[in-house]
Write a structure and sequence with these properties.
By secondary structure, this protein is mainly alpha-helical. The chain has one domain (3-69). It is built from 2 helices and no strands. The chain has helices at 3-36, 42-69. Helix 1 (3-36) runs antiparallel to helix 2. It is rod-shaped.
C-alpha cells in the first residue's frame, strides 16, 4: 500500500476514534441517567460495552496505521 493510501486510512481511523469517543461518552451518560431515574439500564450497559470494544478496535487500527507511517 502506498503512503498516500495509508495516510487516507489513518485520517479515517482518526475520525472513527473521535466519533467513537463521543459515542462512548454519551452512552455512559445514558446509563447513569437510566440508573438515576430508576429505569432498567442493563441493555444500555450492554450497548456501552459494545461501543467500548469497537472503540478499542478503532484505536488499535489507528495505532497500527501510525506505526506503518512512522519512519
Amino acid at each position: 500500500m502506498d503512503r498516500a493510501v495509508l495516510e487516507d486510512h489513518l485520517a479515517q481511523a482518526e475520525r472513527h476514534v473521535a466519533e467513537g469517543a463521543r459515542h462512548v461518552a454519551r452512552q455512559r451518560e445514558l446509563v447513569v441517567e437510566l440508573k438515576d431515574h430508576g429505569h432498567d439500564w442493563r441493555a444500555a450497559t450492554k450497548l456501552l460495552q459494545a461501543f467500548e470494544q469497537m472503540q478499542a478496535m478503532h484505536i488499535a487500527d489507528r495505532d497500527r496505521l501510525r506505526k506503518q507511517l512512522s519512519p
